[in-house]
Amino acid sequence: MPSGNYSIPERSWGFKDPSGYQANGIDDPLITVVNSSNADFDRPILSNYTVSPSTVDISSGTQTLTLNITASDASGVVTPTSYPYLYFNSNYHNGSTWTLVSGDRYNGVYESILLHLIHPLCPLVIIQFQKDHGDSRILADMKPMELMIH
After folding, report:
1. How do beta strands 30-33 and 4-7 pair?
2. Residue 4 in contact with residue 36, Cβ under 8 Å?
3. Which residues pair with residue 30 across a beta bridge?
């Protein structure tokens, strides 16, 4: 937990009398946490999210898309076991799991390959990266990217 001031909320609705009347509200107590460890509480930074090609003609069949993204973090990025996907007409089109193709776990480029089969692509691509903090699951998300379809 990073250093800072935190309140501890009390759910007064949990306290009732035998007739079911809820207790009055009460001010939450505050605590100050001091953590002088070198723990990293920042999310990974994602940048340079690209798709190639950015325009595809699906009238002639399957198209291959290559997605690349740069991920960096002072304590390292865990290579995701998830994959990006396109969602269209209640169907998911999954890419391959992300692979580190250049750099290292502190500042690297990750790649995923996506084959598009028959439907026009919907410009919704979801990605997530988990930080390397054991059981901690701190994720970084980027906005969807757009792709032109002919």
Report:
1. antiparallel
2. no
3. 7
